[in-house]
Amino acid sequence: MNKKNVMAIMIFSIFLLTPFQFARSKDTDNTVISPDTALMDVPTSGILDYYGFLFTTRFFSGGGVMGALNFGVMERLNLGASMIVEKLIGSNSPIKMRRPEIQVKFRFFDGGYYLPSLALGFDGQGYFYDSATEEYMEKGHGLYVAASKEVLAPNLFFHGGLNVPDFDDNYVFGFLAANYVLEDKVSVIAEYDNFFHKDDPSRFNVGTRFYITPYFHLDLALRDLGRSSTFPNRAKRKTERIVQLRYNTSF
Asked: Is residue 94 reached through a cis peptide bond, with omega within 30 degrees of 0 on the bond before it?
């Protein structure tokens, strides 16, 4: 095993073990599930509580793994970072570690009877990195405003917003999503992401979030559903299956 493989495995192990080192002992019978800060790709207006901590691990196509850490550093402010390691799972090589990306979210309005809650954020994490252009073929949301509200029925939440993923061209994109939570055990999710511009095609994602415990969640999803095309660099673009693990606790 070469040095790159060893380094990638060590970093991934640190990502995997970190949340358990910070976890506090709690009585889960008296704990409620925290609001979702994001669905599969789409951000919500939900934030971590002060001193809150969220660790996310996503396994996606090509043996790639993404690890993300987010913290509730202030009453309404969350800060975090994420990093992708390509070809970590399986026998493909060489393993590639991409640059870390930052996440920031500030919830500036808690909503009311008629108005949704609102948050302003930034997320630089994209997918399908092209080494030639040094850009992600699917860009992160960049600067965004997200709105969330429970409407029509209990535990049925709608989310939407606008985002600018690239400040070079300043195109404004949109995203919409909905999820229904059944007895705090399962959440069914649908997302329509990255719409308004044909040059960068929209994405339709569906998935299910299982609340194994109030702190540990398992996501199973299909991204780019029904998509069969190519990226600008001629790489194949098609529906991918993802598995995501989320661990949410507090210091």
From this structure: yes
Tokens at 15, concatenated: 């990502």
Q: What is the largest CA-CA distance in the chain?
A: 58
Residue 36, sorted as left (phi over 0), alpha (psi -120 to 50) or beta, turns out to be: beta
Residues 139-151 have pLDDT tens digits of 899 999 999 999 9
d(CA 119, CA 43): 9
Kindly state the tokens that stand for 42.
């789409």
Which tens digits make up the pLDDT trace of 36-80? 899 999 999 999 988 899 999 999 888 889 999 999 998 899 999
User: What is the C-alpha separation between 170 and 137, in angstroms, rounded?
Assistant: 16
Cα separation, 227 vs 215, whole angstroms? 33
> Residue 244 is inside which H or E element, if any?
strand 236-250
The model's pTM: 0.81
Domains belonging to the chain, first-starting first, are 3-250 (2.40.160.40)
